[in-house]
Amino acid sequence: xxxxxxxxxxxxxxxYARAYGKALWEVYQEVQARWRVQALVPIPIHRSRxxxxxxxxxxxxxxxxxxxxxxxxxxxxxxRSRKTGYQRALNDEDRRENVKDAFIVAEQxxxxxxxxxxxxxxxxxxxxxxxxxxxxxxxxxxxxxxxxLVDDIYTTGSTMNEAARTLLAAGAKQxxxxxxxxxxxx
Length: 186
Fold this sequence. Notes:
Elements lengths: L1 H9 L5 H20 L3 E4 L4 H7 L3 H13 L8 E3 L11 H8 L3 E3 L4 H11 L5 H12 L8 E9 L3 H12 L4 E9 L4
Parallel strand pairs: 1-4, 4-5
Antiparallel strand pairs: 2-3
């Protein structure tokens, strides 16, 4: 699983999202009635990582889950406002510190969006441009009450916890989390 996840995340194997999305759907069906999720929110990656990778693997997972569940994906809701280091080699405490205050909600992001707009005029990266165009077409909607955060790997929960804290502070009422892999070594 570790090699497959690495290929999905860092080697452009976007097609893996279909199988991973199906696996997430199978798990989600067990809790669907209790959670009553109103929006799927992918853990965002920083624009520099988007530029490097060309896609957000968590967003791909959300799109696949959305196809099966009918729940809308809100890629426009949460932004990674600063670049963070890779989590893989960090211990629990360093992971928490690494992602502390790394996220903002889109309605607080005027400067960030302006910065992305300037950068986007100089890029040829089609996947990023498509993502950017889609998110810019979305007007900021009210914060959903019940959100499902989606990421590829959950190890200590630092990233999910920080993203959830940000969304709760912005008005969300309940945050649920779902990932493809859990634990060190996944």
